[in-house]
Every structure is written in structure tokens, then in C-alpha cells.
Batch of 2 targets.
Target 1
Amino acid sequence: MATTIARQIPPTVGRRLAAWLHRRPAVRAAGLLAGPVGWLVVVYVGSLLILFLNAFWSRDAFSGATIYEPTLRNFAELLDDPYPGITARTVLMAALVTVTCAALALPVAYYMARVASPRIRNALVVAVIVPLWASYLIKVYSWRLILAEQGILNWALAPLGLRGPGFGDVAVWLVFTYLWLPYMILPVYAGLSRIPDSLFEASADLGARPWMTIRRIVLPLAMPAIVAGSIFTFSLTLGDYIAPATVSTTIFIGNAIFSNFGAGNFPLAAALSLVPLVIVLLYLLVARRLGAFEAL
Amino acid sequence: MTARLVRIGLRLATAAILAFIYLPIGLIFVYAFNAGTTPSWPPVGFTLAWFGEALRNTGLQQAFATSVAAALLATAIALVLGTLAAIAVARYRFFGREAVSFVVIFPIALPGIVTGMALSTTFAQTGIPLGFFTIVVGHATFCIVLVYNNALARLRRTSRSLEEASADLGADSWTTFRRVTLPAMRSAILAGGLLAFALSFDEVIVTIFTAGGVKTLPIWIFQSFRLANQVPLVNVAGVVAILLSVLPVYLASRITADTGEITGARG
């Protein structure tokens, strides 16, 4: 059968090439991968390596020119004031934001996964995904308007005799929590939907009250999903310099990198940007241990 | 009884948190029509004047055009590279297959400022001038993952037997790809492309490092929102920015809704 068909089709160059390729899956795979992997390795991995190398150069204090002699001076500077404080403050902020996001995400995700009807569940998934994508910068800007002296928050709190937090560290915490919350809700929702119903029934049959079921069944099983979400909340907080600069004057690690970059001290900026990189890589290692990668 | 109370509590919490998510976005829409020139609450009246002014502002228009062009180009590159990588990973066994998924997700998984610093340092050191070209290169790099993830998920759920049947019927590799594999992937690739466009149109953390003097819409907004006389225009630009990042994502979720793919997180 196959030979008759083969005879009917004239063996053009294209067809001969296709036949040649058909016998060589390795060549086909290599052809498919050459473009994307080539791009990512050259553009991205290459850039990371160059960034790494740059951390070992230094800057001439007078001329501002880069001196291409390997030195550990930048790394020594990272250990001097104010950088340890900035790093600690940033990690603390990332941890706070992560915990807050998890606390807010759990009830929403639980409602979506276990209580809502399928129709409402689907609508809620879209309702969480869409604002996640809505212009990042405008969301930050909107909080600048909300928290301003004449903003809507002070206006709403005035009848109660209260005032909003204004600009500052509390504002940064609020804005980061706001920005990354959907990134936490989605994986936790996916994680909670995977818990079999029978576990809830078994827990109830054994006499557990709802609170007991949440503590002993839901939270342990949701943990990998929470850690998966925390990869986003953690990494995004460490890599952001725009939100803190918009609603506070506090310096976080991103702001320190950005201002050194802006001032032309590229070697120090490069060394500084290795700090969030290393923290995130370490965090990824821990997350992997906790089974977060399967929950992504 | 407790179960009922818990359910009501959960419903209220969900409603409150959704309000928390949506109110700041809605606020920009209100301010865009605010007759006042300062962003104080409450608004003082309704006007469409700022939209007319936005249409006459050349700086804003240029930034908008730059963003659309960069997003289209970056999306085109991401579509090709992401689809190729997904086919290779889904249909072939080779050394380092796991590493491909890792490398693809890298540019988006690492903190934005690291990506920005790395690209900017590299362009500076290789003598490539910052501008439109470097914006597109940067955007394409972190958009690949969006097409890749969508295409890969689809390929994993599409049975390989269709491709084998095509080969048995005498179709060569190219014909099989064109007539069988690609149609099966089409909507997933389209959804990935829409997400890539939305991300590229919206990105600012990396873009500031790679833009040089060129202004994308987010960069224009970032540089304008501290200037008191620009605030009404920023609000209008904000409405456009929200719509153009949200609409593609909404469409993408509709396209893939019937096939059950979750195109949630940007990673």
C-alpha cells in the first residue's frame, strides 16, 4: 500500500528532504531547538554570565570609567553599610508580603475550589486572572492616588475619625500584597481543587469539626501550592524597584541597584543584582524540596 | 450549622478580596473622566476633554505606537521560538530535555531587575545601542515562555496517533506538521500569542533598562505621573493600558476555556 502511494507522488527535492529528515529524528529535534535554545542561551544565559563577570570589575572613582581588572571590592562593599540593612529589609518585606498574600488567598481559593458551583468557579478564575494582567504600572499608580493626602482612602476613613497610612513602608507592603495576590490565589486554588472529596468525608466521618479539617487536612495539603505561589510573591518583590519608589522613599534592594545603575556605577550595580538572584535561587531550591514544582 | 456559617464567611471574604482587587483598577476609569485637574477625591465633574487632549498629545501617541510595534514584533518572535521549542520537548527524547523548560522559564522566574541589569550590561558591553531593537529583544526573551507553556500543554494532551496516522497515509513530516500538528495547536498558540502581547505591552521593570531614550507607553506613564500637569493624561493612558493588557488575556482565556487550559500565572 505504502509503495503504491510513494510511486504516485513525484520525488521532488522537498519530499526527498522530508524523507531524509524522517529517518533522522535527532536532526529534526536539533533543527527545532536551534532557534529557541540558541536565542535563550545567547541572549539570556549569556547576559547573566556577562552580568556575573561585571560584578568583578571596578569603577575609577575620579573618571567613572570601568576598570577591567578582577577584584572582590564590590562584594566587600556589599557587606558595608547600608547594603546589609537594605538586603535584610527587602527579604523581610518579601516574607511579610508572602505571608499576607497566603492568608488572603486561602479563603478565596478555598471558596473557589470547594464551595462555589462550577459556573461561579469558572467565572471567579477569570475574575482573578484578568486583573493579574491589568497594567502593572497603572495598579501601582492607582495606589499612589488612593494613599495620597487628598485620596479616596483618607476621604473614606475621615467619618470614622481615622486616616490612611500615607506613603511609607506600610504603603509598600499594601501595594506589593495587592500586586502579587492573584499570583498566590491561582496556584492555591489549583492545589485545593486536587484534594479528593473522600478526604473531607473521611475527616467528617471521624468526627472532625470544620476547623479541625482545615488545620489537619486542608493546610498540609495546600502547603506545596502555597510555596509555589510564594515563589512568585518572593521573586517579584525582590525584583521590583518601581512600587517602593512610587509610594515611599524607603530604599529596597531593587532601588539600590537602580540608583547605582543610574549613577553609572555598573560594577557595583552588577554585584548588587547578584544578591536577589542568589536569594531567589536558594528559595527555588527550598521550594523544590517542599514539592512546590509539582504544584505549579 | 457551623458549616453554613463557614460558607457564608468564605463567601463574604471572597467578595471583599475581589473588591480589594478591582477597586484600584476601577478608580483609574473614574479619574479618566474627572473634570478636575488634580487627583483628589471625590471627583468634581464629568468630562471627555482629557481623551481629546490625549489624542492631540504627540508624545503620548508616539509612546503608544512604539509599545504596539514592540509588542507585535516581540510576539511574532515568541510565537515562532516558543512553538518550535514546545514541539521539540513534546515529541522528541533528547539529552537535556528537562533543561529546556528550565531555560525557557528563567527570564520570567528571576527577579525583573536581574533580567534588566543583565540585558543592559550585555548590550552596553557588546556595543549594541539601546533603543527599539533592544526593547524587542528583551521582550521576546521573556515572552517565549508564554507561547511555549500553552503550546506544550496542548501537545501533551493531543494524541500522537493522529500524527502517526498521517504518516501511515503517506504524508511526509512537513505535510503532517502543516495539516495535523499545527491545526491541533492553533488555538493554544493563539492564546499564548495574546498573553505575550499583553505582557510585552505592559512591561516596564526590564524595559527601562533596555530602552535607552525610546519611550514605550509604560515608560511615558512612569515619567509623567509625578508631573502635576500631566496627571489627567496619565489617567487616560492608564485606561488604554489596562484595556490593552486585559482584553488579550480575556480573549485568551475564552479561547482556551473549552479545552480546560489554565493560562493563569505569567510563569
Target 2
Amino acid sequence: MEFSWPEDDARFRQALRDFLDETLPDDWEEISRHGPGSDDQSSFSRTFCARLAERGWLTQSWPAAYGGADATPWRHAILSEEMWRCGEPRGSQYMNVNWIGPTIMKYGSEDQKREHLPRISGGDVLWCQGFSEPEAGSDLVSLRTLALRDGDDYVVNGSKIWTSYVNGAELCFLLVRTDPESKRHKGITVLLAPMDAPGVEVREVPAVVGERYFHELFFRDARIPASARLGPEGEGWSVVSYALAYERVGAMRYARAGLTLDALAAAAAERGRLDDPAVQEKLGAARAAVEASRLLSYRVIDLRARGSEPTADTNIARVAGTMCENAVSNLALELFGAEALEYGTFAESYFRLAMTAGVAVGTTEINLNLIASRSLDLPHE
Amino acid sequence: MDFEPNEEQRAIALAVDNLLAQHAGPARAIELEREGSYDHALAAALTEAGFLGARLSEETGFLEAALVVEAVAKAGGVVSAAAESLVAPGVAGRSLEGPVAIARAGEDAPIRFGDHARTLLLDAGDEARVVILEPDWREPVRSNFMTPLGRIRVPEGAGESLGAGSGSRLRRWWRLALALDCLGALEAALDITVEYVKRRRQFGRAIGSFQAIQHRLAQCAVQVEATRWLCYEAAANGAPEEACAIAAAYATDTAHHVFRETHQLTGAMGYTREHDLHVFSMRLEALRVELGGTAAHRRAITRSRWAS
């Protein structure tokens, strides 16, 4: 066991921070407060990711064969930490790099790899993910959106909901059922669906968590070419399991929480409240939660670096991440009081960002189920 | 960054577990508690194997010493391993004659190993002092918390000062030591409860198959895992002030949570002296009030990180 960063990783982090200082505009803080799905942040991500790509950093963790640099999972974690720390200027493109690209590498045809991977590594393509449905949330395998083969196309009917990052997205990583008789995990297929296909309609679901945060996607006889299918028909569950194993700790959200907490402590000091024992206790408790989340996320990176299969450590890290975000965002509201109720203020923006932590990418309850069965080996019955 | 034990660490863990399987365990802890004794036999066996005192940290490192302290706590050992193998070398730079107790000057509260200690590490504010104890300075305290307690009254100015600033060094290592004592007891309490709910049947099924119970144990597992890495990182990095306060705050908060949950889920059986849970759960509650308790550790985090 060893808990320090090698010198070259530390140098990389510093170079990245210097780059962020140079590249982020003066009003970035302002832009990032509207959330990653907003118009401003989406459009900024295109120029930002292209510049990150020029430096060779955007997809450094990818294999050299796909234009990456075979960077270690640790190096990739540093990138993710530094990005989340300053409010994720990659916008939705972190998904492309973290799991959409790697899943295409594993399951995609040569044509699909040629079509999608260079665009992702170039940093100017936006994707969204079409997973949840009105009747399929945590129980994702009950999804019903149907795609029936007709000649060279699939004809898709159904709807998706809670879709993030639709703003400007050209492509959707779409889960459908290709066998109408099938149940649960069987008969599911992944389509890399173009969002401009006729019969695809997008509607925003206005929500308190941010601008353009949630959407509904409607498919009405939408024709998606069969060549857009990722992996074999009916094997979509394996594809999405592979993708999700990457996604659950893809976002190093504690990094944002940690920086926010430092700012909260500074604000408390300015207001002369840092000597208040009650404030000290809450700040300390939140700091401990941030560090717990950081180390449990590192444990997952460590397992990935060893090439281990996904374990319940991923779910453990996710639950701790939610505890960390809740602790910091509760404190943000408590410290700022009624000032935190004004939209776009520092405290309000973090509160809004953090409030989906226990729901996004698998609810806390689903993670606890998986810890109980995989890690504690508790019986099903 | 590397979260897997290396060959040497694995070998140490295996050797200490073998030794503990012979000399420690909950049954032994229950027997010693009845007699009000300290486990001199276990201490002698650990010392002989090089697992008690400053030798381990000097020859290998503080992380290795921490792994041994955790293992002793997990086996319910009634020895002052954390004070002897982490705090003494961390603060005094040498072994101190055991049993070793740690206390804050000016407090009259019961302290762990207070009636058995040969040496006292005293937190006297700015400085730490090492006091060789006279037998009539100590008296036993009756307690239900499965850890031998005593009061120690030392004359003003007794013992040797470890120098200006040694007080904060003592508090750092003390916090890490008690976090590691929590960690071992947490693991044992959780393991015992997980096994219990797998076997215990009601309504025609193992109660561990109910989601209401699974979620509570899974939540405990998250916090115990976090405690582990917080402790290991702090030990490996030589007990930095903030990291030690974080380990203690998180470990003691988890201690209280796990105490409540494990007793709830083992029902009446968990309260009995025939069941092993109390050996660990009662100690968790004793540990969580030491050195000012969770609230004080949390304030220490804030002072360490943000105080100007």
C-alpha cells in the first residue's frame, strides 16, 4: 500500500491547473452556475474539449490504437478530479470519454469505430444517454421502447425520460427492446441513434435542478439504420453493464464538494463564524465525508488499474459520494441562510448541483442492494 | 497510489492473525473482563513476535504497525497495542513499558487501561509528558464497556517532558490510534451481525434477506470501508494533523452508528454475554467518547484545515 502521488502525476496535475487558469474565461464561474446542461455550458464545452484534445489530454486514457496515450486510470482520475473541481467544463463530453468511447471500442464495428471515436477524441461531439423510461427507472430492465427491424432500419416507438445533456446532442446512446416477447435482461439492444432522425422529438421537462437538465424523448416510427446497432441484437444488457461499470465513479464529484467546502469555510471566516464551535463541527464533519468519498473512489481506480472486474467497491464509493455531497450542500444552505435562496448564488448553485446525487446513475437504494448481495453476501429469497 | 498490501504487509497480517487466533478472541476477552485483568500473556506473545512496541514501526513503517493494531482490535485483544505500537514511537520516538495509558492532564475521568498501566502518556497542552506510574496512583473503575478502565492521579509535574509542541504530536497519534481501535472493533461487530442475520430465521426466511435489514448493513459497510482507508492513509503518511482528526471523527461517528445498528439487528441476543457482539460494540461506545469525542475531532479538523 502506498498513499502518495508519484512526481510525474503531481506534475501533470499542476500542468492541468495552469491550463485551466489560462483557458477558462473570466466569467466561467458565472457560466458554470447554470449547470452542465445549460446553453452556455454546452456550447463552451465544444471549444474547451477541442483545446483539451489539442494538448492530448481529452482521451489520454484511451489506448494508443484509438488515438489515446494509454494513460493509467490514475492519470485519468486526476483529469476527472480537476475538471469536476472547477465545475466540469467538459460539459457532457466526460461521458463520451469515460464510457461511450470505451464501449464502442469493445462492442463497435470497424465502421462505427471510424465514425465515432475520432469525433469523440476531437472533442466536438455531444451525446446524450437514453436509458430511463417513465416505467423503467431503477428497474431499468423493464424498459419498453420497441425497435422492430424493417429492411435496413429499426423502426423505434416509445419514449425516454430524465434524459440529460440533450441540448445540442447529435447522438443518443439508446437502449431499446428488439424482441417484443422478451422479458427483463433479454431482448435489449443498444442503438447509437442520430438525434436528427425523423420521428425523434425532444421536450424539456422543466425542473428545479437546472436549465435544460431533464428531457423527454419521443420516438414515433423513428427509423434508425441497423448499422447503428452497437453489439449483437438482444445482447444490449451486457453492453450497458460494461458501460455502467465505468459510469458509476466516472465523475469525481467529491472534488467539487471539497472545493466548495473550502469556499464555505472562507465565507464562514469572513462572517466571523469560524470560531463558532457548532460551525466548526459541521465543517469538520463535511470535510471527513469528502475525504471518505475521495479514498473510496480511489479504491475503485486502484482496482481498475489492476484490471479487476467491477466489484461492489464501486457501489460503496457511490454511496459515500452521495453522503459527501449531501453534507456539503446542507452546510451551504445553513451557513448562508436565506441568502442561499437566491438563484445563481454560490450556495444555491452547489445545492442545486448536489441535490440529484442520490438518484443520478443509480439510486442509493440500488447501490445498497448491490453492496448487500455482492459484498456482504446476504441472501436473496 | 496503491491500495493492495505488499508481500511484507500480507506476511505480517498473516503472522499476527495466527498469533491472535491462539491467544485472543472474544471468549478470551469475556473471561478477562470477568476477572478485571489485562492480557499479559497476549502482550508477551506479541512482544516476542515483534508486534508490540516501537520495533515494528522502526523496522517496517507506521502503516504496518497500524495493520497490527487493527488486527488486535478485531480479535478483541485486551492489550494497549495502539498506545504502545503507534503513539509511543510516534510521540516519544521509542518503546515505552506497557501497558501504556493515555490521558489529558487535569481530567479525572476513567481512562482505558488506567488500572493496569505502567506508563502514562500525558497530554499537558503544549507538551506531552511520559510518566512512570506508581501503583498507588492508579485505581480500578467498574465499567460495562468491555475495556479495562481506571483512574490515574499523578502528582503535579511528574514524569519527563517530551518538549515544547509535543502535545499536539501526541493528540495526532492518539486520534489515529483510537480510530484504528475503532476500525478493528467495527469490522468484528459488522461481521458478527452479518453472520447473525444470515442464520436467524423469522417468518420462514433468513432475516438478512429482508431489504430493510440489508440496506442498514450495507450502509454500515460503506462507513467501515471508508474508516479503513482514512486510517491507512493517515498512518502511511506519518499521521498528518488533519488526516488524523478526520480518521478519528469519521471512525467514532461510524462507531456510534454501527453500535446502534448491530444491536438493533441482533435483537435481544446481542445484549447477552453469551453472544460475542458486546465485546466489540461496547468498546466502540467507549472509544467514541475518548479525547473529547466526535465533536472535538470535528472541530480539530476545521482548526487544522482552515484556521488562519
